[in-house]
Amino acid sequence: MRFTINGRDVETAFDPRVSLLDLLRDHLDLTGTKKGCNQGACGACTVLVDGERINSCLALAVQYQGRAITTVEGLEADGVLHDLQRAFIEHDGFQCGYCTPGQLCSAIGMVAETRRGMPSVVTADLAADTVTLDHDELRERMSGNLCRCGAYNGIVDAIAATYAGEAA
C-alpha cells in the first residue's frame, strides 16, 4: 500500500485491519503521534489528512492510501519549527507534552476549517463569510483535545498568538 506521509512517498505491506495510528507508530516508527484513549475521545492521536484533522486511532490505515498524511514530525520544515510549535514553547502550551502532537495537528486543522468558513456551536453569525478565532471559538474548536496536565491556557494563548484574531 502507498501513502504520502510528511511529504514522502511510503510503500508498505501490513494487515488491512491496522489503524492509521498503529501504522504510523508501530510500522513506520513515527512515534510523535500518541496513543491516548484509543477510542477517539482524547485527541492525542490527531493527525492531518489532506489538511483535515482526524483521530488516527479510529481510522483504518487502508482508507488513507494515496492521501497526504501529516504527523507532528512533518510540521517542521528543513529543521525549522512551525510557527505554532514555537508559540507552544513561548507560551508554555504543554507540561508533560504527551498531548502536544495532537494539539498541534488539531490546531492547524482547526484554522483550516475556519478558513473554509466552517462554523462551530459558538459562532455568533452562521451566515457570515468569515469566522473570527476569538477566545470562545478557540476553546470550543479545540475541545476534542484533552490535556491531563491542564495546560489549556498556554495552548489557547499559543494558538491565539500564532493566528492572532485571524478572521478566516
Characterise the protein shown here.
- There is one protein chain.
- With 168 residues, this protein is of the alpha+beta class.
- The chain has five helices and five strands; from the N terminus they run ββαβββαααα.
- α2 (83-90) packs across α5.
- The chain starts with a strand and ends in a 5-residue tail after the last helix.
- The model has no long low-confidence stretch (mean pLDDT 94).
Entry summary:
The chain is α+β, with helices and mostly antiparallel strands and 168 residues long.
Mean pLDDT score: 94
Q: What would you say the CATH architecture of the largest domain is?
A: Orthogonal Bundle
Class per helix and strand makeup: alpha+beta
Looking at CATH, the homologous superfamily of the largest domain is [2Fe-2S]-binding domain
Shape: globular
Number of strands: 5
Q: State the helix count.
A: 5
CATH class category name of the largest domain: Mainly Alpha
Question: Which features does this protein show?
Answer:
2 domains, 5 helices, five-stranded mixed beta sheet, Ubiquitin-like (UB roll), alpha+beta, globular
